[in-house]
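README, section 4: Worked example with a bound small molecule

Sections 1 through 3 covered apo chains. Here we extend the same pipeline to holo records, where the ligand is supplied as SMILES alongside the sequence. The molecule in this example is L4XM7KOE. Nothing else about the input changes; the structure line simply encodes the ligand pose together with the chain.
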Amino acid sequence: MDEQQTKVGLSDDELATHPTVYAADTLKDQVAIVSGGAGGIGRAIALLFARLGAHVVLVGRDQAKLDALAARLGDKASAHVADIRDPDAVKALFAAVWGEHGRVDCLVNSAGGQFPQAAIDFSVKGWNAVIDTNLNGTWYMMQAAAQRWRDAKHPGAIVNIVVVTTHGLYGIAHSIAARSGVIGLSRAVAVEWAPLDIRVNCVAPGAIETEGWNVYTSEARAAYPRSNPMMRAGSAFDIAEACVYLAAPSGKFITGETLTVDGGGQLWGETWTTGKPDYFRGG
Ligand SMILES: CCCCCCCCCCC/C=C/C(=O)SCCNC(=O)CCNC(=O)[C@H](O)C(C)(C)COP(=O)(O)OP(=O)(O)OC[C@H]1O[C@@H](n2cnc3c(N)ncnc32)[C@H](O)[C@@H]1OP(=O)(O)O
Ligand SMILES: NC(=O)C1=CN([C@@H]2O[C@H](COP(=O)(O)OP(=O)(O)OC[C@H]3O[C@@H](n4cnc5c(N)ncnc54)[C@H](OP(=O)(O)O)[C@@H]3O)[C@@H](O)[C@H]2O)C=CC1
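The generated complex, written as structure tokens:
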């Protein structure tokens, strides 16, 4: 972790009042589970979904963080502590939410992350931590949701927040492996679960200013705006609106898709999560 940790991204007040293209009743009466719901992107999703009429179930490992956001949202949110890497905790989460609300309409998997390191130096423990969080944890959540929807004959929508995998993003190979797994899995179950009226999509953010960036050095963070031709970072609100698009009726004919929201970063730009090596400076 960098010494110069800073608060980055939009504040809750800014997120809560940011103009949106969506009508206020877009998600009226829906119940949405958002993992990582008190994180930088997750809280933007939670705030927007609640604003558009949903009850949002915030999931993470830190009760205090979840409670603070839930308190702000009043009866539009509830907080549930669960480690997504623990399949029994995930099953208990879904049992509790279904028991409380009698339905779930949408699952957004925003819990995740990685640490920057050259792949050649990954320890077994570090590799496993990233794969277990981002691939296994996401899968436990997807499967638990789908089993509930199948048993209740209830339609559902899943949105998995991933990372852009089409580019050799330097220093996060473990995460690229895990997220490629999630994208492949989403495409596969989009077909298997279509008969169950369950849609499964991904959103791949580019550089989005959040506190999650504190795992990177200040030098690396300062260069992220150059990761795309817009020459700036995006905001968590951009990702939240993409999630609404896929989760709401606007996405009713979309499944198995990955929506990239990266300011064109796939086309032009440089991203060095561990700093730019001399080799790539051409000198
Ligand atoms: C194509 C164009 C696209 C443009 C893209 C633009 C730029 C994008 C910028 C980068 C992309 C991604 C950004 C983000 O995702 S930001 C926000 C996400 N949030 C985080 O990443 C949060 C921080 N990360 C973590 O919490 C952890 O990394 C982890 C997810 C793994 C947490 O798991 P766990 O709690 O189990 O981990 P531990 O801390 O206990 O560590 C377990 C072992 O992992 C190794 N490790 C952990 N940290 C480091 C480190 N900094 N360096 C080296 N190794 C590390 C280590 O082996 C740990 O075990 P030990 O502690 O026993 O040594
Ligand atoms: N910000 C960016 O530039 C980009 C982000 N992404 C991805 O988007 C997602 C959200 O990122 P962002 O909001 O920025 O990151 P944050 O670090 O701010 O949020 C991640 C959240 O995930 C939760 N979480 C982590 N591990 C677990 C776990 N095992 N069980 C339950 N919850 C967990 C954390 O909560 P707690 O620790 O309290 O449990 C935290 O609130 C991540 O997958 C990230 O990798 C992808 C590309 C770019």
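What to look for in the output: The pocket of NDP (ligand 2) is lined by residues 35-36, 38-42, 60-62, 65, 83-85, 110-113, 133, 137, 161, 163, 205, 207-208, 210-212 (CB under 6 Å). The longest strand covers residues 198-205.

Section 5 describes how to batch many such records.
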